[in-house]
Amino acid sequence: MSNPVHQICDIIRRERSFLILTHYRPDGDAVGSQLALVLMLKKIGKRVAAWNDDAVPTKFHFLPGASLIRNPPAKPQKFDVVISIDSSNWQRVGTAAEKIASRKHLINIDHHVSNDRFGDINWIVPSSPASGQIAFDLIRRGGFPLTRDIATCLFAAISTDTGSFSYANTTAECLHVAAQLVGTGLNVGKISHHVYESYPYARLHLLRLVLADLKLADRKRIAYYWITKEMFEESRAKREDTEGVIDYARSIDGVVVAILFEELNEPGKIRISLRSKNAKVDANAIARVFGGGGHREAAGARIPGRPSEVERRVLRAVRAEIRAAGI
Ligand code: 5GP
Ligand code: MN
């Protein structure tokens, strides 16, 4: 497969109006990658819009340009180019899809192994730890500007998707990219302060309620808990505060798969997050059983059904995957 980076760079140079999209319920990699592209395109004089159904999580409000991300407008709009970054399928960009009156090119840039190649041009790099690192590659190879503001967005993107440079996806290349970003003069301490040390109290309250109901299964190889609607009400936490909650289940010694179940506002729908700690156990494969996707180590899905029934089905699928791995 040919690398489409040259084609993408040509289109960026040639065309004038751009819409940058990412997935709903955006995480750090989604917001950071989206904003980096927005700032870079503005810097080279393009007309740029950026939409998301969900607000930028509060902890990312400090990112340069964060206020440029808007809800999709009521009336569909025309663009020369639509770029989706960090979204594994077109459904995950949400209602933005219905607000594009026309576009010449749909470019799909992503690092999810489950990406279904929905673009006219697809640049999918599953070996990349973060979509932010692919965006960095695009900027470098296109000779586009890398300002300190753009680097700040990319650093936040890569930092969050690598667990602050701690997961196995933290390669030498990743650290080399990070070094170049820091070289623009950005302040690592300031970024970490906003992203990792500025949680609202309500998130800790929610965490207390969630951890009180931690359960272990399959000879303690599976750790799981629920975030119920009642827990959101009692703690006054926001949906965005669930990011990272699964990490506590994963952190237990001996656990192979961690599962977070979240009751969504839409009645009868459950969001699951999965984390695998063993290279032989594929979280993406488990998520796919339920129509979701992601990466080998981290994946998710949205599943219709009653909570007890969804829990039973997911636990059964996780047990089967652990057994198939022969561990
Ligand atoms: P998280 O558990 O942090 O929400 O997501 C972990 C990974 O799985 C992320 O890379 C995310 O994009 C992916 N993911 C989460 N939920 C879904 C889903 O419903 N569908 C798909 N295709 N991917 C998901
Ligand atoms: Mn990502």
Provide an overview of this structure:
- With 327 residues, the protein is of the alpha/beta class.
- It has 11 helices and 14 strands.
- The strands form 3 sheets. A 6-stranded parallel β-sheet has the order 3-2-1-5-7-8, covered by helices on one side. Strands 9-10-11-12-14-13 form a 6-stranded mixed β-sheet, sandwiched between helices.
- Helix 4 (148-161) crosses helix 6 and helix 10 crosses helix 11.
- The longest helix is centred in the C-terminal third of the chain and has 18 residues, at 307-324.
- The chain is globular, with a radius of gyration of 20 Å.
- The two termini are 35 Å apart.
- The mean pLDDT is 97.
- Bound molecules: guanosine-5'-monophosphate (5GP) and manganese (II) ion (MN).
- Residues 29, 86, 111, 130-131, 161 line the site of manganese (II) ion (MN).
- Manganese (II) ion binds next to loops.
Poorly predicted ranges: none
Class by alpha and beta content: alpha/beta
User: What ligands does this structure carry?
Assistant: guanosine-5'-monophosphate, manganese (II) ion
Share of β-strand residues: 15-25%
User: Number of DSSP strands?
Assistant: 14
Distance between the termini: 35 Å
Mean pLDDT: 97
Order of helices and strands: HEHEEEEEEEHHHHHEEHHEEHEEH
Strand order of the largest sheet: 3-2-1-5-7-8
Report the oligomer: single chain
Helix content: 25-40%
Number of helix segments? 11
Rg, Å, rounded: 20 Å
Main sheet specs = 6 strands, parallel
Shape: globular
Draw up the topology in text.
Elements: H1 5-14, E1 17-21, H2 28-43, E2 47-51, E3 69-70, E4 77-78, E5 81-85, E6 100-102, E7 105-110, E8 121-124, H3 131-142, H4 148-161, H5 172-182, H6 188-196, H7 201-211, E9 215-217, E10 222-227, H8 229-235, H9 247-250, E11 257-263, E12 269-276, H10 283-289, E13 293-294, E14 298-304, H11 307-324
Parallel strand pairs: 1-2, 1-5, 2-3, 4-6, 5-7, 7-8, 10-11
Antiparallel strand pairs: 9-10, 11-12, 12-14, 13-14
Helix pairs in contact: 2-3, 2-4, 3-4, 4-5, 4-6, 7-8, 10-11
The site of guanosine-5'-monophosphate (5GP) has 14 residues, from strand 13 and strand 14.
